[in-house]
From TrEMBL:
Entry's transmembrane regions: none
Gene3D superfamilies assigned: Potassium Channel Kv1.1, Chain A
Keyword Ribonucleoprotein belongs to the record: no
Species name: Davidia involucrata
Biased composition, class Basic and acidic residues, residue ranges: 379-390
Family, similarity comment: Belongs to the NPH3 family.
Protein name, entry field: NPH3 domain-containing protein
Residue ranges of every copy of the NPH3 domain listed in the record: 206-396
Superkingdom as given in the UniProt entry: Eukaryota
Length: 396
C-alpha cells in the first residue's frame, strides 16, 4: 500500500497519568479535552494551523495560565486529534489508506485550511488522496471501507463518492491498464510501496469480485451500481460477484436453527431479531442487484436465494421476483432443487408448495413446454411435500 510521511521531528509526546503532553522547553498554555482525554499543549503551533482552535480560544477568556478547549464531538477520537497535533508540531506522521479518512475528517473539523497557513494539512491530505490513494486498487478499497466509521463526514467531503468512482474505473479498465499497487484478495502478497511505487498485475475476468466482497452492503451496492452503469462488464461476471458476496456475508441457514449462532459472533447485534433483520436487508439488496439478463446467474443460486428469502421472511416482492427468475430458468432445476422449506407450519415438517406452483406458472408463461408436465411435477412434488424440512440447510 502507498503511504506518505509528513514532518521530520521525532515523536516527543508522552503520557503522565491521564494527561498527554509533549516535551518542550516552553511551558504549555493550552489544555485540549477530546472525548475524555486531556492534552497539555501549546497555543502557538496549534493555533497557527487550526482556525477552529483560534476561534474557540478567542471566545473563552483566559482565566488561568492554561486555557481550556473542549472538543467532545471530535471525529476520529484521540488518535485523529493526536495525528493533527503532531503535524502542527512538525513531528513525523505516517498516512495511508487506513488512517487518511480519519485524518481528513479531523483536519476539516479543526479547519486546517490554506486560509490559515499555506501548505496546511487539508491541502497535503487532498494531494496524497487524489494522486496516490485513488490510483491504487487496495488503497481505494481500504479507504472506502474506513469511511464506514465516518459516514456523514465522508459523504460531505466527497471521500466516499471518489473512492467508489476510483474502484469502478479500475474494474471497467482493462486489467493490464489498471494500476494495482496490490491485489486485495487473499491470494495477493501484502507489499508496501511509497507514493511513487506501483505495480500492474494481470488478472482473469472478475478478479475484482472477491476484493469488493469485503465491503458492507451499502458501499457494495453503490460500487456495483457504478460498475454496472459503465456498461462494460458482462452480466455473468456481475452475477458471479453477487454469488461471491452472498457466500461471504449471508450465513449458512437452516430452518430449525435459523441464524441464532450468528448472534454470538456479531458484537453489533443484541438479538436474533436484529441479526435476522440485517440479513434480510442484505438479501433483498442482493436481489435488487441481480442482472436482468437470463442466465446471468445460475438457477441453483436463484433457488438458494429463494430459500433464504423464505426463512428470513423477505418481502413478497423479493420472493416473487426470485420465483419469476427461477421460472425462466426452470429447465436447469430438478424436483429436489424445489424443496423450499415453509414457515407456515409450526411443526416445520413441510415444504412451500405454493411458491413452487408460482415458479411453474412463470415457466409456462415463457411459452415453453417443460420436460416434465406440470401435473407430473405437481404429483412428484406432493409426494415429497410431507418429508421433514427441519434438517434442510444450504450454503451459498
Amino acid at each position: 500500500m502507498k503511504f506518505m510521511k509528513l514532518g521530520s521531528r521525532p515523536d516527543t509526546f508522552y503520557s503522565t497519568e491521564a494527561v498527554r503532553s509533549v516535551s518542550s522547553e516552553v511551558s504549555s498554555d493550552l489544555i485540549v479535552q477530546v472525548k475524555g482525554s486531556r492534552y497539555l499543549l501549546h497555543k502557538f503551533p496549534l493555533l497557527s494551523k487550526c482556525f477552529r482552535l483560534q476561534r474557540l480560544c478567542s471566545e473563552c477568556p483566559e482565566s488561568s495560565p492554561h486555557q481550556i478547549v473542549q472538543l467532545p464531538d471530535f471525529p476520529g477520537g484521540v488518535e485523529a486529534f493526536e495525528l493533527c497535533a503532531k503535524f502542527c508540531y512538525g513531528i513525523t506522521i505516517t498516512l495511508s489508506g487506513f488512517n487518511i479518512v480519519s485524518a481528513r475528517c479531523a483536519a476539516e473539523y479543526l479547519q486546517m485550511t490554506e486560509d490559515v497557513e499555506k501548505g496546511n494539512l487539508i491541502y497535503k491530505l487532498e494531494v496524497f488522496f487524489n494522486s496516490c490513494i485513488l490510483h491504487g486498487w487496495k488503497d481505494s478499497i481500504v479507504t472506502l471501507q474506513s469511511t464506514k466509521a465516518f459516514p456523514l463526514w465522508s459523504e460531505d467531503l466527497g471521500i466516499t463518492s471518489r473512492c467508489i468512482e476510483a474502484v469502478a474505473s479500475k474494474v471497467l479498465a482493462h486489467p493490464s491498464k489498471a494500476n494495482l499497487s496490490h491485489s486485495y484478495s487473499r491470494r495477493g502478497r501484502d507489499d508496501l510501496s511509497s507514493c511513487n511505487g506501483s505495480e500492474s498485475h494481470r488478472h482473469k475476468p472478475g478478479w475484482w469480485a472477491e476484493d469488493i466482497a469485503e465491503l458492507g452492503i451499502d458501499l457494495y451496492w453503490r460500487s456495483i451500481i457504478a460498475i454496472k452503469s459503465g456498461g462494460k462488464i458482462p452480466s455473468n461476471l456481475i452475477g458471479d460477484a453477487l454469488r461471491i458476496y452472498a457466500s461471504r456475508w449471508l450465513p449458512k441457514i437452516s430452518k430449525d436453527k435459523k441464524i441464532s449462532k450468528q448472534v454470538e459472533s456479531d458484537p453489533d447485534s443484541d438479538s436474533v431479531g436484529e441479526v435476522t433483520s440485517k440479513n434480510r436487508l442484505l438479501l433483498e439488496s442482493i436481489i435488487g442487484l441481480l442482472p436482468v439478463e437470463k442466465g446471468a446467474v445460475s438457477c441453483s443460486f436463484l433457488l438458494k436465494l429463494l430459500k433464504a428469502a423464505n426463512i428470513l421472511n423477505a418481502s413478497s416482492s423479493s420472493k416473487m421476483e426470485l420465483a419469476r427468475r427461477v421460472g425462466i430458468q426452470l429447465e436447469e432445476a430438478t424436483v429436489n432443487d424445489l424443496l423450499i422449506p415453509s414457515l407456515s407450519y409450526p411443526n416445520g415438517t413441510v415444504y412451500d408448495f405454493d411458491i413452487v406452483m408460482t415458479i411453474l406458472e412463470q415457466f409456462m408463461l415463457q411459452g415453453q413446454s417443460p420436460p416434465t408436465s406440470p401435473p407430473r411435477v405437481k404429483g412428484a412434488f406432493e409426494r415429497r411435500r410431507s418429508r421433514s424440512a427441519e434438517n434442510v440447510d444450504f450454503e451459498f
